[in-house]
Amino acid sequence: MTIDVPAIPRTPAARLRWALSDGWTLTRRALTHWARRPAQVVVGLLFPVMVVLMFRYLFGGQMRVPGGGGYAEFLLPGMYAMTMAFGLETTFAAISGDAAKGVTDRFRSLPMASSAVVTGRAAADLLNSALALALMIACGLAVGWRWHDGPGRALAAFGLLLLLRFALLWAGIYLGLVAGNPELLAAVQILVWPVGFLSNVFAAPSTMPGWLGAVAEWNPLSATVSAARELFGNPGWGGGSWAARHSLLLAVLWPALITAIFFPLSVRRFRRLGSG
C-alpha cells in the first residue's frame, strides 16, 4: 500500500495557509480533549474565582484602598492579570505532557507545518483564557467591581490582559518543550508564583525595599495591572516613577518583547526536538 504525502507548499502565501490550517487542526484537538474532560476545565476555571472570594471577603475588611474607593475595584484588575499569568502553568503542563507521551514526536513525523504544534496550542489556550477572563469578570461584577470610564476603555483593558496572556503562552510553550516532563511543573510554579506576587497586585512598590520596589514596578505584570486599573477607572497605587507613569506603554511593550523572544525560540526548539 502506498501513501500519498502532500507536497510542501512553495509560495509564502501557500505556506501561510498551510500553517494556519494545521494550526487550527491542533487547536480543535485541544478543544476536543477539554470537551471530553470537562471536570479538569471546570476546576481550572473555578480556582481563581475562589481566590477572589477569599481575598474579597476574608481579607477585604482589613485592606485600605489607596485614595479611597471599594476594595473590590482595587482587587479585581490585579486578579484578572494574575489569572492570565498563572495560565502559563496550564500551557507548560499540556506541552510537556505531549512531549513525555511521544505525541510531539508523532507530530514531527507528519507532513505538517512545523509551527502548527505551537500555534495550535497557543490558540487553544488563548480561547481558554478568554473564557476564564469572562468568568472572572462575572465574578467581579457579582462582588461589587465596576468600570467607570466607558465600555471602550474597558475593552482596551481586557485586550491588554489577553495580550499579556498571549505573550506568556510562548514562554510556557518554550519551557514545556525544553522540560519535556510534566512532573517539572513544580519548578515552573516556583518561577511563576514569586513573579506574580512580586508586583503591584497586592502591595505598593513604594512600601518595599528600594531595589525590590524597582523590580516590582518594572514587572510586566505590574504594567498590565496599572494600565488596567487606569482604563477601568479603578483605584491604584500611583507612583512617580517612569514605569508607573507610562504603564499603558509598558503594558504593550512588555508582551511584544516576550513574544518576540519566546515565539521564535519555541518554533526553533520544536524543529530541533530529537536532533540530539
Walkthrough of the structure:
- It is a multi-pass membrane protein.
- Pfam families: ABC2_membrane.
- It is found in: Cell membrane; Membrane.
- Residues 39-273 form the ABC transmembrane type-2 domain.
- Belongs to the ABC-2 integral membrane protein family.
- The longest helix is centred in the first third of the chain and has 31 residues, at 71-101.
- Helix 3 packs antiparallel against helix 5.
- The chain is globular.
- It has one domain.
- The chain has 276 residues and is mostly helical.
- Helix content is 74%, strand content 0%.
- The two termini are 32 Å apart.
- It is built from eleven helices and no strands.
- The mean pLDDT is 84.
Compose a concise summary of this entry.
Helices cover 74% and strands 0% of the residues. The chain contains 11 helices and no strands.
SSE topology:
Blueprint (H helix, E strand, L loop, with lengths): L11 H25 L1 H22 L11 H31 L1 H6 L7 H27 L8 H29 L5 H13 L12 H8 L2 H13 L9 H4 L1 H26 L4
Family: Belongs to the ABC-2 integral membrane protein family.
Subcellular location: Cell membrane; Membrane
Organism: Actinoallomurus vinaceus
Number of strands: 0
Number of domains: 1
Structural class: mainly alpha
Instruction: Output the radius of gyration.
Output: 20 Å
- Beta-strand share of residues: under 5%
Please write the string of helix (H) and strand (E) elements.
Answer: HHHHHHHHHHH
The rounded distance between the terminal residues' Cα atoms is 32 Å
The overall pLDDT average reads 84
Bin the helical content. over 70%
Largest sheet: none
Total helical elements: 11
InterPro entries: ABC2_TM, ABC2_TM_bact-type, ABC_2_transport, Nod_factor_ABC_transporter
Pfam family, one: ABC2_membrane
Membrane topology: Multi-pass membrane protein
Domain ABC transmembrane type-2: 39-273
